[in-house]
Amino acid sequence: MGFLDISNLQKSFGATQVVKDFNLSVEKGEFISFLGPSGCGKTTTLRMVAGFEVPSAGTIRIDGRDVVRLRPNQRNIGMVFQSYALFPNLTVADNVGFGLRVAGVPRTDRAERVAEMLAIVGLADFGARYPFQLSGGQQQRVALARALAVRPQVLLLDEPLSALDAKIRVSLREEIRAIQRKLGITTIYVTHDQEEALSMSDRIVVMNNGVADQVGAPFDIYNRPATRFVASFVGTLNLLDVRVVDAGAGTVSLGGTTVPLGRQLRGDKVTLALRPEAVGLAPSDGRTLGVEGRIAEVHFLGSVIRIRVRVGDARISLDTFNSADHPPPQVGDPATVWLNPRDLMVLAD
Ligand code: ADP
Ligand code: MG
Questions:
Q1: Is the CB of 41 under 6 A from ligand 1?
Q2: Domains of the chain, CATH where assigned
Q3: Residue 55 · residue 48 · CB < 8 Å
Q4: In sequence order, what are the residues at sequence separation of 6 or more whose Cβ sits closer than 8 angstroms to the Cβ of residue 233?
Q5: Could you tell me the keywords of this UniProt record (predicted)?
Q6: pLDDT tens digits for range 250-297
Q7: 167, CA 20 to 30 Å: which among 72, 187, 268, 313?
Q8: Where does 63-121 show beta strands of DSSP type E?
Q9: CA-to-CA distance for 251 and 341, rounded, in angstroms?
């Protein structure tokens, strides 16, 4: 049993079931992301853990205690929302100390804890300010300090960086992760941003339509996606519908070349997935299979050039690094696409 256990969790609004049999066991100190497109049930699931939403069925246990019937303030959780939701008429220090005051923590202890929390989020000198005097990123740090001040057992964050601009988002995600590690607090982080989930998490729960499609470490989710949905939602992906040459031998035809997949196949067509970074325009150690094609698109992105090569009916995207000595290929040029057959993933639907 984990520190936070969610079993057979379900939620319906009227006739619509938005969370369907959700199961997850989170270890103490783990950082878990719920990753999925808008409307897939991330917030609803998180709100059930927090106690803002009553499950239609299922159990939630924190540290061995069934919390489903407890109110949010009895669950020992801290929560951070997308909108910072600070009290505009309270100073930063009073915002951070709010939960402590409600809990009846004496003034001097409170002041000490508030100072400690503000130091942790890098706002030691900001206690006397009001929220409107802070940037969005600073306000979200205050919200984080406020959530952590009551020393919760579980920290829940719902798209906390979505409202911030790109540069702040990247620096703040590193900071949140560092603080989470330092405090060792069990955390669930909701996001629709795959890069956030991949860079921050111990494990990612990829959600699709109220179901956890796959639960795994970022490396495994990215490199061994369990379903077509996971493969296409996480990262850029080439999807290749190819003809099976010999199902028993596990060979397919890719642009006229017969490619061994090293496993038995079913049917006469399969969908293969291939990451752009697994493909190159030159052979290399692992990339021993060359498939003939023609350059269809060239997108100069700065440090990286994204190239699409037409191979038979398929288009294969690949990335090359810019080099001032080598101008990129031209549309229409013949090209050989090099890959390692082991990088071809056979997808289940
Ligand atoms: P996400 O956070 O992944 O974007 P949500 O959990 O907010 O998704 O929503 C999942 C689905 O549940 C959506 O279709 C949403 O419209 C619906 N939903 C959420 N809250 C309610 C509610 N209070 N009443 C009715 N439908 C809701
Ligand atoms: Mg949401």
A1: yes
A2: 4-233 (3.40.50.300), 238-346 (2.40.50.100)
A3: yes
A4: 35, 36, 37, 194, 206, 208
A5: ATP-binding, Nucleotide-binding, Transport
A6: 999 988 889 999 888 988 999 888 889 899 999 988 898 999 999 999
A7: 187
A8: 65-66, 77-80
A9: 10
pLDDT of residue 231: 86
- The alpha carbon of 39 and the centre of ligand 2 are apart by a number of angstroms equal to 7
Listed residues: CB within 5 A of ion ligand 2: 43
Cβ of 13 below 6 Å from ligand 1? yes
For ligand 1, is residue 327 a contact (CB within 6 Å)? Answer: no
Can you give the length of the chain in residues?
349
Query: Which atom of ligand 1 sits closest to the CA of residue 34?
Result: 3
Would the CA dihedral through 134, 137, 138, 142 be positive or negative?
A: positive
The whole model's pTM is what?
0.86
Interface pTM (ipTM) of the complex?
Answer: 0.98
CA-to-CA dists, residue 106 to 49, 128, 219, angstroms? 29, 19, 46
Type of residue at 281: L
